[in-house]
Each structure stands twice: as C-alpha cells, then as structure tokens.
Amino acid sequence: MPAGARGAIGIRNVDGRVNFSGLPASLHSVSTINDLEWQLAANRRYWTSWNGELPDNDLTVYRTGIHHNLLNGVLRVRNRPLKDAIDEAHEQLDGSRWGWWVGADSDEATVDGLLAHGATITGEMPVMAIDILGATRFDPPDDLRIRIVRERSEMREYVAAYSGPLGFRAEDLEVIVDRELANRVGRVVRLAGIIDGRTVGTCTLSVATETAALYFIATDPAYRRRGVA
Predict the structure, then answer these.
(1) Burial 132-147 (b: 16+ CB within 10 A, else e)
(2) What integer is the mean pLDDT of 82-101?
(3) Are 122 and 18 in contact (CB under 8 A)?
(4) Is the dihedral of CA 212, 97, 77, 89 positive or negative?
(5) CA-closest candidate to residue 19, choices 124, 126, 127, 97
(6) What is the DSSP letter of 120?
(7) Which residue has the higher pLDDT, 205 or 18?
(8) Is residue 61 a contact partner of residue 30, using CB atoms and an 8 Å limit?
(9) How confident is the model over 88-93, as a mean pLDDT?
(10) Of the candidates 77, 176, 95, 228, the residue with the CA atom closest to the CA atom of residue 86
(11) What pLDDT does 147 receive?
(12) Which one of 30, 102, 136, 223 is most buried, counting C-beta atoms within 10 A?
C-alpha cells in the first residue's frame, strides 16, 4: 500500500537520468509504515552497497560504472550548499549515466535548486510500504516455484531475467553478475520465480537496516498478469 507520501520526482542532467523520490520533509520516530526515515535509510544502504560507499554522508554519491541510471547517482544532499554538492557530484559521476534522487532525507529546496541549475525532471517513483503482519494471504500460481539464488549460474539467469524488463544492456550482464555476487552488505536475498525451468520473475530482499526493502522486482512480459510478481 502507499506509504502516505506524495509521488517522487526525478532530475536529469546532461550526463544521465534517474527516477527519484520527492517526498514530505518531516521525519520522526518510526512507528507506522507511513514513516519514511527508515525506508529512505534502507534505500541509501542498498544502492551504496553496490560500490561500498557510505550511505549516511551528507552528500551520498554512488557509482558502479554500469550503464544504467539506477546504478550511479546522488541519493541525498543535506547541510551543504547545493552548488558545491552539484560540482562534487559532477566530479564523481561525469562519464556515467546518472541522476539525482530527491526525497524527504534531502534539504527542502533541493528540487528547485537543481532545476535552477539546469536539471530536468524525468519521472516519479512512489514509496510503498506494507505491514506484513496485516498482509492478505496470496496463493501463487500452481506452476510457480520460488528459489533462493546462490550459485553463479543461478545469478546469471536471475540478472538476465531482470535485465530486459528494467532496461539493462546485454553487454553489462557479466559485470552485474559480479557485482551482485560481491554484495555482502547486510543480508541480501534474491528470489527467482521459476516456471517450466525458466526464471520468469525476480525480487531482491535487502535487510540491512530496520526496514526490509524490495528491489529489482521484474517479470518476463510473457508471464505478466499471472501472479508471478
């Protein structure tokens, strides 16, 4: 269900683009799924785990070098002049495809400031949350089997399954497999949905903070609307 937040906004500069959150600025102690602080902390922790950067810097930047806007960018800026942050982001990220996520963990004027410096809004990404204790039971398709991905061969199938739906380049597959296997921050569980021996759905569960977060949720177009994901 929605996490009680308005939609997200994305900013694109000359070098890249990304979808990112434009959320209410008030953060407080976590008590319900409508609280965003821990959700956004989990988001920073997961994406920075791809290259080992610290998730809680005032300017949180991560770069993998993989040609995709999810895997390079700025996750947060706070407590520093925006122009300085923009200059540093360019220094670290130019040459890659990247973008700037703006959420409730960034300074309030970040969106307007980025637009004033020539950035472009590219899209919105809602933050969604669910209380698993109150979730409705769901019966998956009878022919769907869920497998935890562990071996390299399984990881290759897993990455290939989400690469198409999420827009990754085929030539980057092996690099992404290497990065996935090397990711040891917190607990990361990759769940592959298997039908007829094929990986047709993917979902990554990251438990590195107080919030369990889901990423890389994708379904083969031929198997959509069947309850795979």
Answers:
(1) eeeeeeeeeeeebeee
(2) 95
(3) yes
(4) positive
(5) 124
(6) E
(7) 205
(8) no
(9) 96
(10) 77
(11) 95
(12) 102
Instruction: Give the whole-angstrom CA distance, residue 17 versus residue 120.
Output: 9
Residue 177 — φ and ψ, nearest 5°? Answer: -60, -45
Q: How far is CA 60 from CA 6, 34, 72, 85, 166, in A?
A: 22, 23, 11, 10, 23
Q: Return the structure tokens found at 163.
A: 């690469």
In angstroms, what CA-CA distances link 193 with 91, 142, 145, 155, 182?
40, 12, 6, 13, 22
Q: For the chain, list the strands marked E by DSSP.
A: 10-12, 59-63, 72-77, 99-101, 120-121, 145-148, 187-195, 198-207, 212-219
Q: Which residue has the tokens 């690099």?
A: 175
- Structure tokens belonging to residue 86: 């923009």
Q: How far apart are CA 4 and CA 16, in angstroms?
A: 29
Say how many C-beta atoms besides its own lie within 10 A of residue 177's C-beta: 18
Tokens 């992404």 -> residue: 176
Measured distance CA(92)–CA(90) in Å, rounded: 5
Q: Which two tokens stand for residue 1?
A: 């269900």
| Percent of the chain at pLDDT exceeding 90 | 63
State how far the Cα of 119 lies from the Cα of 213, in Å rounded to an integer.
29
Rounded CA-CA distance 60/106 in Å is: 10
Indicate the pTM of the whole model.
0.80
pLDDT at 32: 67
Give the max Cα distance, the chain.
55
What is the per-residue pLDDT across 139-179, written as a single tens digit (0 to 9) for each? 888 999 999 999 999 999 999 999 999 999 999 999 999 99
CB-based contact 43:18 (threshold 8 Å): no
